[in-house]
Amino acid sequence: MDVDRAPLSRVSLAAAATAPLAFLAVFFAYPLATIVGRGLAEGGSSSFALGETARIAWFTTWQAALSTVLTLALGLPLAWAVGRFAFRGRSVVLALVLVPFVLPTLVVATAFVALLPERLDQSVSAILLAHAFFNVAVVVRIVGGYWAGLDRTTEAAAAVLGAGPWRRLREVTLPQLAPALTAASALTFLFSFTSFGVILVLGGPRIATLETEIYNQAARLFDLRTAAVLSLVQLVTVAAIVVVASRLEGRLAGRSATAWRTLSRPLGHERLLVGSILAVSTAVLALPVAALVGRSLSTSTGIGFDHYRALGRETSVLLVTPWGAVANSLLFATLATCLALAAGGLLAVALARLRPGWLDGLVLLPLGGSAVMLGFGFVIAFDEPPLELRGSALLVPVAQALVAAPFVFRIVAPALRSIRPELREAAALLGASPLRVRREIDLPLVGRALGGAAGFAFAIALGEFGATVFVSQADRPTLPVAIFRFLGRPGAENQGAAAALAVVLALLAATAAVAADRAGGRRSPL
Amino acid sequence: MKRLLLLGLVLLAVGCGGDEAGEPTEVVLVTHDSFVVSKPVRAAFEQETGLRLRILQTGDAGAALNRALLTKGNPEGDVFFGVDNNLSSRALDEDLFEPYEPGALDAVPDRYELDPEHRLTPIDHGEVCLNVDKGWFAERNLAPPRSLDELTDARYRGLLVVQNPATSTPGLAFVLATVARFGEPGWQEFWRRLRANDVLVVDGWEAAYTAEFSGAGGSEGTRPIVVSYASSPPAEVVFAGKPLDEAPTAVVEDSCFRQIELAGVLRGARNEAGARELIDFMLGERFQADLPLSMFVFPVREGVELPDAFRRFALVPEEPLELSAEEIGENRDRWIGEWTSIVLR
């Protein structure tokens, strides 16, 4: 066989990687390096003792690890249900798990405070529970989506050979799932590691993580030197952890091929199991959301849609109507999704030929950068031509895409890797050009993953707050920024508007997820 | 998708593009997250001056100031608004502003002027005060506290929620209030007793007022005493969603600490003339009269009529607690450090 006809040459793969790498270099590495460099150059000694830094770094790491374990425990049963079975409402479940993920932490955290028993107020347990609640979507959608595409012949063979269900799960399915499991764990870990609002609101003033302490030092105490040192500690820790995790993934990953099969309906005792998993998970996930919906409907005169009707009216809190903020968010999130799909997708294409390794891990690094330092970096790095971008509204989708692109990569890359090389070779042998192979073999096969990634990216962009608030402008607030402004005012009307907007945000994210899943699914030949 | 992206890019380019060269066509106000101006007032400024007013909100009061310091010399805008007397020393030490003395200062009482060199112009004042949930106390036939001292009484145990002064401006103002009232080392002792009386400390105003305070509209909170503003009771009335004859909350007058917010022309501003016009406008009657119902603060200008809700429900403390900006500047960081070890460690 003519080896040179193999799909896309090394050169074109390198070319595919150039654009996304340049994007990350300009909008992540450069601003962050600028602000860290400025901080380190500042004279004087850091006010922060080494021991204190180590203590905070250690706490940050173990709470993130525990949060990840808890999220897996909550998410895996649900991932099994949606990854193995077809049932009515499956796509709704896949969309609903995204709701907690996009809701602004400040809003949900207050709902959490009201639901938690008082002795859990301001405790590590409250933080862990909140992290599991927020991140369960990552596990369910990434692992569940991958599970649905697994080739079941090996498992069926094991069953024929007499292996019981647990043994099949342990020895066949889990190794097959390894890429998705590590990807979901790594992302959950990173989100818990750098989480901000949850720590501040639920942890209380006695608990600090690297991210909250960086914010404290940079934005409040203006000790840029300490903030720079802590940012480096955070970035290095994150880099070390993701690289180790990716190498582990490379070692664990079996050759799992994607096959498109219809999911089976649950039978017999499976019905009971799937039913109870769905019931329990829905209850856990819905409770804080229901509290939020309740708040948005409770008015001064009882139950009603007053707060929703008010969203179309001028308000003294914003320069646009709340619906105007919704429109802004939709536009920005669409742009951000395109950027993230382009950046994450091209990187996945470029790296999919290699076995999963440390490069995969490094793609996650933008999630390990501190939002406040990146925001400060934007302000001082982009202040002169040719990169005079301060005050440009384009920075909003760029900031959102930085957070979303790693997700796209981590969802698309395993799907690309699981395509049987024989398929591409056969197509090439039959005379298909490399691009045609991409279009007619790869694209349909990763269509579902791309659709899922797009839904995720859109939801992330809609809900992104930490980086957006730094670059957003008063004339064009996004939805989470508008919610934040309403929360910052006293009065029942303002609090009601915040709750109503949060519900709108949740609905939009869920709708987008359903639409993206449908669009992606249609591409795949069933 | 591609077409959408293109359309979006074009829209954005049209939206943000303005020619940079030649006469400046806009003036940029850099300010904190709580800044609000009503639309007609903003339009009046744009019409009077022919300049577009762009507003950049860059974090809470502390973060916004620090971001302005970070961009010193090549600022993000022309005017900075939102330095308060608790943080002004930091801005003045760093030489962030150009001096400018607006004519309208004649109409502002001297007590609001902090900088004899006029690098900072006072715009509004608001008082940070304890707020109490009137209904909560009425139901239990308990009198709400009338002074700071009473907060350490056993009958008010577990009722107060405050903000961390290291992370919140009202939180800092309340600690300064206790310093002004009890002096040193009295204030430290007061906080020790307050801690023993189960004070709850949270990160910021939102968490304290909307989540923990029982008196806020739409809140599920359980604590009936909170650190907030003198203008919070009228805000509860204005935003109640129904007409109220009485505010659901009240202010503890003895606890009020004065906060003055100031504005200045940023050194290195691209549109310095426009910046001066903006400061003139902010001291003008129209903007000053808009302040109460937009930002829920009081105008510094004399003779500005207050809206009905403020006349009926707001209390302007006769003699709020005060500390000089210099004293705050010299001691702020030490006080916050001491407070942290007394209350949190």
Explain this structure.
The complex is a heterodimer of chains A (526) and B (345). Chain A has 526 residues and is mostly helical. In chain A, 73% of the residues lie in helices and 1% in strands. Chain A has a single domain, classed as Orthogonal Bundle (MetI-like fold), CATH 1.10.3720.10. In chain A, a hairpin with a 2-residue loop joins strand 1 and strand 2. The radius of gyration of chain A is 23 Å and the shape is globular. Chain A starts with 9 loop residues before the first helix and ends with a helix. Chain B has 345 residues and is of the alpha/beta class. Chain B has two domains: 149 residues, D-Maltodextrin-Binding Protein, domain 2; 163 residues, D-Maltodextrin-Binding Protein, domain 2 (3-Layer(aba) Sandwich), CATH 3.40.190.10. In chain B, strands 1, 2, 3, 4, 5, 6, 7, 8, 9 and 10 form a ten-stranded mixed β-sheet that branches. In chain B, strand 1, helix 2 and strand 2 form a beta-alpha-beta unit. In chain B, helix 6 crosses helix 12. The longest helix of chain B has 28 residues. Classes of the chains: A mainly alpha (526), B alpha/beta (345).
Uncertain stretches of 5 or more adjacent residues of chain A = 1-6
User: The CATH topology of the largest domain in chain B is what?
Assistant: D-Maltodextrin-Binding Protein, domain 2
Number of helices of chain A: 22
DSSP helical segment count of chain B:
12
Instruction: Give the C-level CATH assignment of the largest domain in chain B.
Output: Alpha Beta
Structural topology:
The complex is a heterodimer of chains A (526) and B (345).
Chain A: H1 10-41, H2 50-84, H3 90-96, H4 98-102, H5 105-115, H6 124-148, H7 153-160, H8 165-193, H9 197-203, H10 210-220, H11 224-252, H12 269-297, E1 298-299, E2 302-303, H13 306-309, H14 322-351, H15 358-362, H16 371-381, H17 395-417, H18 421-429, H19 434-463, H20 468-471, H21 479-487, H22 492-523
Antiparallel strand pairs in A: 1-2
Chain B: H1 2-16, E1 26-31, H2 39-49, E2 52-57, H3 61-70, E3 79-84, H4 88-93, E4 97-98, E5 121-133, H5 134-139, E6 160-163, H6 169-196, E7 200-202, H7 205-212, E8 225-229, H8 232-238, E9 249-266, H9 272-283, H10 285-295, E10 298-299, H11 308-313, H12 325-343
Parallel strand pairs in B: 1-2, 1-3, 6-7, 6-8
Antiparallel strand pairs in B: 3-9, 4-9, 5-8, 5-9, 5-10
Helix pairs in contact in B: 6-12
